[in-house]
Amino acid sequence: MSDLAPAAPTSIAAPPHIPGAERDLVRLLAGIEDGQFAVDATTLMRELQSVMAQAALTAKSVSGELTVKLKLKQEGGVVEINADVAIRKPKLPRAKSVRWPLPGGGFAQSNPAQMDMLRPVTTGRAAAYAD
Question: How far apart are CA 31 and CA 70, in angstroms?
Answer without folding.
Answer: 13
